[in-house]
Design brief:
With 214 residues, this protein is mainly α. It folds into 2 domains: 56 residues, Homeodomain-like (Arc Repressor Mutant, subunit A, Orthogonal Bundle); 120 residues, Tetracycline Repressor, domain 2 (Orthogonal Bundle), CATH 1.10.357.10. 66% of the residues lie in helices and 0% in strands. It is built from 9 helices and no strands. Helix 1 packs across helix 4, helix 2 packs across helix 3 and helix 5 packs parallel to helix 8. 32% of the residues are buried. Keywords: DNA-binding, Transcription, Transcription regulation.
């Protein structure tokens, strides 16, 4: 924080209090602006003053509510998790996992969301608070989709003690790997292959929890 900028007030963790009315509109505008900067320029160029200017709100308002760039990113990720589409229920494990994989693929190839996630993931490798916020984002999304695996277990498609969260992570993992490590297009075919591989492994018992003997 440079000289002359207002000191942030201590208050609730950003995102833990749901604002209404004008406060909600300000929050939405600021989060939109923050996401735009991340997508366009990356984490290193995210500045609270610039975000305030883009959002057309007072700098003092932004510093008072969020205080730091990492707090703003944490709130942005929480909002994104809450605004993400709910899981799709198709009646089969493969259908559900394919819907999940295609949603991840569309998000990561979106002109705005793709660069935004790359920027946040890069920042999470060196900033602990951003990493914590990113973990919360994925915990929320995995928890949203995990019931489809438990439903599959109820139908007898996978072993009863299958770790639902690990199956959902297995769907997304190859898509993020391709996004971050290659210039090969992340297309729907890649999403479908990821879903098929995760479904096959789950049916084979690869994600069954191994309980320790006492």
């Amino acid at each position: 924080m440079s000289a002359g900028e207002p000191e942030p007030e201590q208050g609730p963790e950003p995102g833990t209090v749901r604002p209404g009315g004008r406060t909600a509109r300000v929050r939405a505008a600021v989060l939109q602006a923050a996401g735009d900067v991340l997508a366009e320029q990356g984490f290193a160029h995210l500045d609270l003053g610039d975000v305030a200017r883009r959002a057309q709100v007072g700098r003092t308002t932004v510093y008072r509510r969020w205080g730091t760039v990492t707090a703003l990113v944490a709130d942005l990720l929480q909002d994104m998790a809450e605004q993400s589409l709910p899981r799709t229920e198709t009646g089969s494990l493969l259908g559900d996992l394919r819907a999940n994989a295609r949603l991840v693929q569309r998000t990561l190839t979106d002109a705005r969301q793709g660069p935004l996630f790359k920027a946040v993931i890069a920042a999470a490798t060196w900033d602990a608070r951003t990493a914590e916020a990113l973990h919360r984002f994925y915990d929320t999304r995995v928890a949203e989709w995990a019931p489809c695996v438990r439903q599959a277990a109820d139908r007898g498609e996978v072993p009863e003690d299958t770790d639902a969260h690990e199956v959902i992570r297995a769907v997304s993992a190859p898509l993020y790997y391709r996004l971050l490590t290659s210039d090969v297009p992340l297309d729907r075919a890649a999403a479908d292959r990821a879903a098929e591989a995760a479904a096959a492994a789950a049916r084979a018992g690869a994600y069954v929890r191994h309980h320790k003997r006492t």
